[in-house]
Amino acid sequence: DKTSNSTFQGLHRSAELFGRGQRVITGGNARLSLFQRPHPVYFAEGTGVHLLDVNGNTYLDFMNNFTALIHGHGFRPVLDRLHHQLELGVSFSGPTELEVELAELLCGRVPYFDQVRFVNSGTEAVMYTIKAARALTGRVKIAKLEGAFHGSYDPVEVSLDSAPANWGSRSAPNAIPYSAGNSQAVADDTVVLPFNDVEATREILERNRDKLAAVLIDVLPQRAGLVPISLSYLAFLREITARYGIVLISDEVMSFRLSFRGGITRFGFEADLCAFAKIIGGGLPIGAVGGPARYMLPFDSTNGKPLVPQAGTFSANPMSMAAGIATMQSLSEQSFQLFDDLGEYARSSLIEMFHRERLPYSVTGMGSMFRIHLRAEAPEGYREAYAAAEQQRKMEILIRALQDRNVIVSPTCQLCLSTPMSKDHIDEMVTSVREATKMVEA
Ligand code: PLP
């Protein structure tokens, strides 16, 4: 039994590596949002749904590198393409056939994509959509949803985890910089919208309509609770942005996982520009911007310097393109139907177990993604999903207890599926969650 507790070898090799890391890497390791008290687990290998740590412990991986690994680890078609490309060359100072192939594949799937451009991360993708929106409109301000995470570009590192005392009123949230490295002046150009609240959002957008270049949304914002956007809110945002010539940007770095044709399209809508990443790189670094040709025009360098120059030493590098092609070719409409069914099974199994055990916990999510909340009522957005110190302490105990029971989840207890997963893996995870909660409630 690969995931049995009885085979637990301890974590001393991870502890040692963290000790070495602390001397030469600030913070001991190069990731921020990892569960790491007293130290992170150092992984050595991944196969399918399993991860092996440096001590030889095997885990069920429900994190999949923050949702990027949609086929899990060591997916054969990706390995084969990468081995082949490795021999041909890992990066060139010019384009390859591979970028055309991946672009054709993506434009063939997402109905409103005429064109895409490739970058190296979700952060970069979001940054370029905002720059394009500014170039297209001649305006500077952007609006984002309260609590939604969009990567590390200054204008979007706003209203993420400030203390509740600084949030401002529900209907008019404050724009607080998340990083001490950002200026308040930049944050002042970001308008924060109350998620799923049409009337309050209408008032804010009307007030700023002549200054807004873009409204940036995520149809399933993770940090804001992994609560899906409401259809009426999305319909309203689509209509008001079109009316005032504001660019509607859909950040699908995570939510591109929601369907064969992307995130916003699952809800029956189209964005003007889309920033996406993660799954389309098959586990290698990637980001992309996509949209109708007229919205992609700022990047066009056919006649010289474009309005928004977009370069990058590793943009569209052959390895990421090769892994991305193999990954996306291996996803069909049916893959996403299976994700919906298995995701529903996971959410209902967890909810049933919480009821049965009389645990005051709830579950949110959609498709292949779900999140466990240590509160009885499922959150409606960022303010309810925000973990107070006591809740945060309990969450850390839960995540550590899950790790000790060989299940890896994100630090906010978000889980995601990969194609090699089955109901058996879900059942195993639910059993581990049930056992782990005993530690939390102890
Ligand atoms: N946008 C969303 C919705 C994300 O979830 C993330 C990362 O998790 C980003 C942007 C940033 O992407 P990256 O980490 O590739 O820079």
UniProtKB/TrEMBL annotation:
Keyword Transferase attached: yes
Protein origin, superkingdom: Bacteria
Coiled-coil region(s): none
Swiss-Prot/TrEMBL keywords: Aminotransferase, Pyridoxal phosphate, Transferase
InterPro entries linked to this entry: Aminotrans_3, PyrdxlP-dep_Trfase, PyrdxlP-dep_Trfase_major, PyrdxlP-dep_Trfase_small
Keyword Oxidoreductase: no
Cofactor(s) essential for the protein: pyridoxal 5'-phosphate
GO molecular function: pyridoxal phosphate binding; transaminase activity
Pfam families the UniProt entry points to: Aminotran_3
Family in the record: Belongs to the class-III pyridoxal-phosphate-dependent aminotransferase family.
UniProt-recorded name of the protein: Aminotransferase class III-fold pyridoxal phosphate-dependent enzyme
Organism: Mesorhizobium tamadayense
